[in-house]
Specification:
Elements lengths: L5 E5 L6 H12 L3 E5 L12 H8 L2 E5 L15 E2 L3 E2 L4 E2 L14 E4 L2 H15 L4 E4 L10 H4 L1 H10 L4 E7 L16 E7 L2 H7 E2 L4 H13 L4 E8 L5 H15 L6 E6 L4 H10 L13 E3 L7 E3 L2 H18 L5 E4 L1
Parallel strand pairs: 1-2, 1-3, 3-7, 4-8, 8-9, 9-10, 10-12, 12-13, 13-16
Antiparallel strand pairs: 5-7, 6-11, 14-15
Bound molecules: iron/sulfur cluster.
Length: about 325
């Protein structure tokens, strides 16, 4: 759970019951409180990139989602559901690092009812087709769920609408409040995993894989469809043994034949590398361009991938291992 160092309230948020409740809560907990007018977030300290990043990651903004337009979320869903933005985690390779600005604060919204009402309009527009919403496109929503209850509200909202599906992904484990939600099997919860050696080195503030698998077991037992994203996979010397151990651990803990796997090898862009080096100047992330294959990307900038031979061996390994422990049908993709 996220325990912010400071909370910034947008003025309008205090007109909502949820905003008032959170204000009282943080005041009682003696958390530093600031205010924002006109949606401008100021007052987060920090001089160097590292400090600004660290202070941003310790700041919670309580606001009102005014723009009710939802971004598209291809190819995995139709729309992003804007419940939360940002994440308390400090993973060095986070995909959000290039998107959230120099002070990447976490923002929650107090007008969840309005957001879900808007989702309802999108569902109506696409009928009779099903509309899929992604709840973690720009965040990890679990660590702030205790404050908002927004995920549970969304899960129950989509649970009652047979023309919608909901999904989100997390690296965190505070799932207890979701276990009794009326999900009707319409929300898929995916857990992002890695081997502990990699978590310790790069996923600061996130929990070890055993804890994430324990949380996954809870939601699986509560009837949610679940999946795992194993990412980013680093082809270190003994990666096969280590990732195989982790897969075997999942198999031993979770009795569910319908688990779905997405497996993603490590890759980086020049822009992401520069960004990571400015925040984590001593990072040990393997980002030597000369050891990678350059692949042109869809949006004009390319990625540095592992070489063709390395990727083939890696794909064979994960295909065989997942097929042996579950089946080939449990693999969504391996890239
Ligand atoms: Fe980014 Fe996910 Fe890590 Fe949060 S937990 S910092 S969203 S990679």
């Amino acid at each position: 759970m996220f325990n912010p160092r400071r909370v910034i309230f947008e003025e309008d948020a205090l007109n909502y019951d949820k905003g008032k409740e959170l204000f009282e809560r943080f005041k009682k907990e003696n958390v530093e409180i600031k205010y924002s007018k006109n949606g401008r977030i100021t007052g987060i300290p920090g001089k160097s990139s590292t400090e600004m990043y660290e202070e941003g990651k310790n700041t919670l903004v309580v606001g009102v989602r005014k723009k009710l337009y939802f971004q598209s979320c291809k190819p995995s869903a139709h729309y992003q559901l804007p419940l939360v933005s940002g994440c308390m985690g400090m993973c060095e390779y986070c995909y959000l690092n290039t998107q959230m600005g120099k002070k990447p604060y976490i923002k929650i919204h107090v007008n969840v009812d309005e957001i879900l009402e808007k989702a309802g309009e999108y569902i109506e527009e696409r009928k009779p087709d099903i509309t899929i919403f992604e709840g973690a496109a720009t965040s990890d929503p679990i660590p702030v769920e205790e404050y908002t209850g927004a995920l549970k509200q969304a899960i129950e909202y989509f649970g009652q609408n047979d023309k919608s599906l909901f999904r989100f992904v997390t690296k965190f484990t505070d799932v207890d409040s979701l276990l009794d939600a009326n999900h009707n099997g319409r929300t898929t919860i995916r857990f992002s995993l890695n081997i502990n050696e990699i978590i310790k080195m790069y996923e600061h503030k996130a929990e070890d894989f055993q804890s994430r698998i324990a949380a996954a077991k809870k939601v699986s037992d509560a009837g949610y469809p679940i999946g795992f994203i194993i990412a980013p996979v680093f082809l270190i010397d003994d990666y096969k043994e280590k990732y195989y151990e982790m897969l075997k651990y999942i198999k031993a803990v979770i009795d569910n034949e319908n688990l779905m796997f997405e497996v993603i090898s490590h890759r980086f862009t020049k822009r992401a590398k520069d960004n990571i080096l400015s925040i984590f100047p001593n990072t040990k992330l393997p980002m030597k361009e000369e050891l990678r294959k350059f692949k042109f990307g869809q949006f004009g900038y390319g990625k540095y991938m592992y070489t063709t031979d390395e990727l083939k061996e890696y794909k064979d390994f994960f295909t065989e291992s997942i097929s042996e422990l579950w089946s080939k049908e449990n693999i969504n993709y391996i890239i």
